[in-house]
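Feature request, filed as a ticket because there's no other form

It would be nice if the structure record came with a short human-readable summary line next to the tokens. Right now we just get the raw output. Example of a typical job, pasted below so the devs can see what we mean:
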Amino acid sequence: MRITLFGLLLLLAPWIDTWADPVTSFQGAMKSTASVQGPPRGSAAEREAVSRFEKFLGCLNEQTARQDTTKVYAPDAYLNDTLNTIHGSQNIRDYFIKTAKGLDSMIVNFDDVAISGHNYYFRWTMDTRMKHLSPGKNVRTIGVTLVRFDPEGRVLIHQDFWDSAQGVWDHVPLLGSVIRWIQSKI
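Raw output as currently delivered:
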């Protein structure tokens, strides 16, 4: 089957608006939290917030998603992982539970953390094994997560920057082939 670029755009058209919306949503979240101060720089509270976030995402599973999401994320938190945009810790918890159910395992190793203003940038390597996409195959990706904490050290903003094509879409039957074909033409 041969798909032209025009045909591919027609197939993707219903999703284009949802892809553009996360940018506006992220910019709004950044603006609305611009004056929020997280834990004091260099404090034990700051170290605890960073450690709690890394521990939570380091080995996310259904149990930790159920028990710990609302401890790690503020009630009005914003999350965009390049696949979905979610608002509110309860919705984030439900999303993490759903995600965990589709995984055999997920391990995130945090390589370092950089701080700029109110923003924390976590550089990581993630290894996942998905139940329904490339079963039994380890998928390794790299990325950076921007986090902004509230005064209690809970996550207000979680914005991922990673190649979701390599991490997920590349492993979807047919779609993965289309993505690899497009990448070969660029």
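Something like this underneath would help us a lot:
The longest strand covers residues 103-116.
DSSP finds six helices and six strands in the chain.
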